[in-house]
Amino acid sequence: MPAAPQRPRGLKDILPAEQPYWVVMTRAAEAMAVGAGYQRIDTPIFEATELFVRTVGETSDVVTKEMYTFLDRGGRSMTLRPEGTAPVVRAYFDAAMNNGPQPVRLYYLGPFFRYDRPQAGRFRQFHQFGLEAIGDAGAGLDVEVITLGWRWYGALGLRGVSLQVNSIGDAECRPRYRDALRQYFRPYLDSLPADDRARFERNPLRLLDSKDPQSMSLLEAAPRSLDFLCEPCRAAFAQVQAGLGRAGIPFAVNPHLVRGLDYYTRTAFEYWHESLSGAQNSLGGGGRYDGLAEDLGYRPTPAVGFALGLDRTEGILQAQESAPAIYALAVEPSALEGMKALAEQIRERGLAVIADVSDAQLDVKLRRADRMRAALVLLVGLPEDGTECVSIRDMKARAQQQVKRGELHDRVRGMLAAHAAVPG
Ligand code: HAM
User: Fold this and answer.
1) What's the CATH number where 253 sits?
2) Which atom of ligand 1 lies nearest, measured to the CA of 121?
3) Quick one: which atom of ligand 1 is closest to the CA of 308?
């Protein structure tokens, strides 16, 4: 009998037992994105190879080693999308979205493909939740995007996430920084591994991302991009930090943070998780890419975005199974805005809330909350007399009580604490 076909290396099935996590992640992503005015976009699974070669930069590992590229029957070179930013920018211009009001806020969820050595948390087909805000250069948009990513992890009840931010400058100031890095590493060149010597030649910023012990030991004293920023980049980075501070989002300025793709300018950021280490420590990341549109041959257009990996997040969610989740919903459509505001208030005080912003029937929303294993459901109503009323339903005890707005937060905290204490 011939051997049964094998599942290709680096690919996986998302089995029924894992599906609830995917429902939680995608629903939270949709609620978060739609609630902030982002519209969904789905681009094709493959594109002309040229798009990615121009985008991710010929020097990045993604292009040099990791693309699934093939010739179609017409002899054209095509590539399974390794990332979503380039296709979204292409679609933005294809559909003339640049002619409408700016910025254009878009989000996506779907599979991506990279031919990398498979290991824990690294797959050849993986999934991302991405946001791209295109057409506005203001640092306020960086803050919005970074905040939404942070809140997504919060909505999932994911603990142990940290936010790392850096600014890697722009076309104006980066050349000086690149020169300084080359100057610093040149005397040690012979002792570096071949990979890092190639990085030195092609794009010395990538040296900051080296996993080689010798290169890493040199990084300590290496020049930092933050010391080379031109005035506009410096001011923008100060605004990003101030904005995150105002939003109450903790972050670390990490001067060694560079991203694996070459298109970034100014802000670069990553969400890390304490359980991940080495090359796979990033749960998600993004930044500003003001030069990408022009590199692709379009009109120069500033933009910022992120992509959050769903596969790694799912692994962590499974591991911390007991995370209490609050699910907020509007009992009638007129209460939707009030419900969103309430959810935001609770999040601001450090609790994770998934807000159901759909216009589904009440029983459908309650079933969703149940499937997501929410501990508590907040039901926000706006009866005819116009006074908002909020009830908390304890999903395990199947009990529901009405609460005054002012007491809500303490009551929710108390109930969650009780949940954690009661084995389920
Ligand atoms: P990236 O850092 O290449 O950024 O990928 C984002 C996230 O996707 C990573 O942090 C990781 O969680 C996940 N990921 C990447 N490769 C794999 C893999 N082989 N297996 C499992 N998970 C993986 C981007 O893709 C940019 N397009 C992000 C962006 C959007 N920048 C601006 N806008």
Assistant:
1) 3.30.930.10
2) 21
3) 7
